[in-house]
């Protein structure tokens, strides 16, 4: 059976977390969050975890080469053999190029990219109306986060070209799940 290696992308409020849970359950592959991996590497005390910890303590962004090393370690685990869902990585074209090289090095299948697309006015409505939102969930900061997403992820989506599947993120959770399932062929 072929691996199911996915990158799940979409702007804040698009429903990535909800759809990732569905994919994990339906396909039986782990969701891999770079934030979770960084915290786990730091907690493990590994060499790369110690390097990441020192960088994060200074308040600096963890450089791509350290993140790639952490992703490499994570993708080598047994639970990733049938595939994985990357969440929060790659965020830049440079990271996408590094991920492609890593997958080749590990003898893994190329990724498919699932992009949840939701109009900005709907994203604003969703984010501003959710009760458990972030403290900075006001219109100005949400618009800024959406702009950062657009600017940083457009090159990643362009990089993957034909591997990108765009999913209409409007409708009920079930309707969107059906679209995701159809796109994954499951």
Overview of this protein structure:
The chain has about 190 residues and is an alpha/beta fold. It is built from eight helices and five strands. α5 packs across α7 (about 140-160) and α6 (about 120-130) crosses α7 (about 140-160). The mean pLDDT is about 90.
- The tally of helices reads 8
CATH classification, class level: Alpha Beta
**pLDDT averaged over residues:** 89
CATH topology: Rossmann fold
Strand arrangement within the widest β-sheet reads 2-3-1-4-5
Roughly how many Å is the radius of gyration?
17 Å
**Extended strand count:** 5
CATH homology superfamily: P-loop containing nucleotide triphosphate hydrolases
Give the overall shape, derived from the CA principal axes: globular
**Into how many domains do the coordinates divide?**
1
Low-confidence stretches: none
Please state the structural category.
alpha/beta
- CATH architecture descriptor name: 3-Layer(aba) Sandwich
| N/C terminus separation | 13 Å
Give the biggest beta sheet. 5 strands, parallel
What string, H for helix and E for strand, traces the elements in order? EHEHHHEHEHHEH
Q: Classify the helix fraction into a percent range.
A: 55-70%
Percentage beta strand: 5-15%
